[in-house]
Specification:
about 170 residues; alpha+beta; 5-stranded mixed sheet; about 35% strand; elongated; oxidoreductase activity; electron transport; transmembrane; copper
């Protein structure tokens, strides 16, 4: 009662398997080139290295010969009126607007994540690996972020504050 010609269609199965694979390759190759070109920066105005430690960040302005500082969260006793609790730091990262900035991000101890949601930035800080992100801010202001990786006890107490000035 069955027709053997219907169940034996190996040529058709080969075509509908190989044809989508070829289409996916044709879509992927130009996309990989574009992704690679988006990550490269020819001439950034600033290069800042951010190192994640347990409960604080260290910033190095590498273009200015050894300008290094730590950024700790301010305890509640040291907050001024109007400061944001658990988000304010003692030393902010100061960056220019309308200039390409390269952030090189790494970690010393465990996985961290350098995240400022309002700037659209999130880059993982991995021990032994140097990741980079590039951005150009268009509006001045103070931008807040936190470590968004579960990097241990009190990981949310690693705030990031970037002050963008003209």
């Amino acid at each position: 009662l069955t027709n053997t010609n219907i169940t034996d269609a190996q040529e058709m199965e080969t075509i509908w398997t190989i044809l989508p694979a070829i289409i996916l390759i044709l879509i992927a190759l130009p996309s990989l080139r574009i992704l690679y070109m988006m990550d490269e920066v020819n001439n950034p105005s600033f290069t800042i290295k951010s190192i994640g430690h347990q409960w604080y960040w260290t910033y190095e302005y590498t273009d200015y010969g050894g300008l290094i500082f730590n950024s700790y969260m301010l305890p509640p006793l040291f907050l001024n009126p109007g400061d944001l609790r658990l988000l304010e730091v003692d030393n902010r990262v100061v960056l220019p607007i309308e200039a390409p900035v390269r952030m090189m991000i790494t970690s010393q101890d465990v996985l961290h994540s350098w995240t400022i949601p309002t700037l659209g930035l999130k880059t993982d800080a991995v021990p032994g690996r140097l990741n980079q992100t590039v951005f150009t801010a268009t509006r001045p202001g103070v931008y807040y972020g936190q470590c968004s990786e579960i990097c241990g006890a009190n990981h949310s107490f690693m705030p990031i504050v970037a002050e963008l000035i003209p």
